[in-house]
Inverse folding.
């Protein structure tokens, strides 16, 4: 499920970059472009610093949104863009909740931060998202374990618009070479897997969705 973010996304923070670091980023962008899988460089608040053409192609059919485009801030896209589920399979359980958990941990670790605070405000403006964040998320973490929030190594479903890939999975590989790490950046690569024939569809079970919770997060009674 995606949620409409309120307000306007603030301009990315201006981070002083030494000339040699700027030259490194320019060369790193060239390197990133040579990678055949979707790959992007983000800062600690998921603002996208660099992204390659394969990343752009994965999200090429995503409609416009004032605050949550995948090439601007990847976390905002996952949480707030109404089209996110058309590319990110099992959107609630496999993308939203793990990234909400990662955001919660980052917010606790980083403390006051303009970019993170803005995302937190937008979560608070949506009653369902806020209830999921404050009540459903802790219950989910207790049920699946804190490691479920880790990006590196996670295998998650994607629905690629290119029929050569179609409905498949990707393994997220997270890397932070020393120079990127010094700049506060991390690289994420979505290593796509070859599509496999889909199993016969099963009749979905109807489940009542408790008010104020994502449908995949049972009400913990809090």
């Amino acid at each position: 499920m995606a949620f409409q973010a309120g307000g306007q996304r603030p301009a990315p923070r201006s981070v002083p970059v030494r000339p040699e670091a700027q030259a490194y980023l320019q060369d790193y962008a060239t390197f990133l472009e040579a990678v055949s899988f979707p790959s992007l460089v983000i800062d600690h608040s998921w603002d996208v610093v660099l992204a390659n053409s394969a990343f752009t192609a994965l999200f090429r059919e995503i409609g416009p949104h004032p605050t949550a485009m995948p090439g601007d801030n990847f976390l905002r896209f996952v949480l707030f863009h109404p089209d996110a589920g058309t590319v990110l399979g099992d959107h609630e359980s496999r993308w939203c909740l793990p990234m909400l958990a990662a955001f919660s941990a980052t917010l606790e670790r980083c403390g006051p931060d303009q970019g993170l605070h803005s995302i937190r405000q937008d979560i608070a403006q949506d009653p369902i998202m806020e209830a999921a964040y404050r009540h459903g998320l802790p219950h989910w973490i207790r049920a699946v374990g804190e490691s479920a929030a880790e990006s590196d190594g996670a295998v998650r479903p994607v629905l690629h618009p290119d029929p050569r890939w179609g409905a498949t999975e990707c393994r997220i590989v997270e890397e932070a070479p020393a120079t990127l790490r010094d700049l506060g950046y991390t690289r994420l690569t979505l290593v796509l897997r070859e599509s496999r024939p889909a199993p016969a569809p099963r009749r979905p079970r109807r489940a009542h969705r408790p008010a104020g919770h994502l449908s995949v997060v049972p009400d913990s009674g809090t």
Q: What stands out?
A: Strands lie at 39-42, 48-51, 155-159, 167-175, 186-192. The longest strand covers residues 167-175. DSSP finds seven helices and five strands in the chain. Residues 78 and 84 are 6 Å apart (CA to CA).
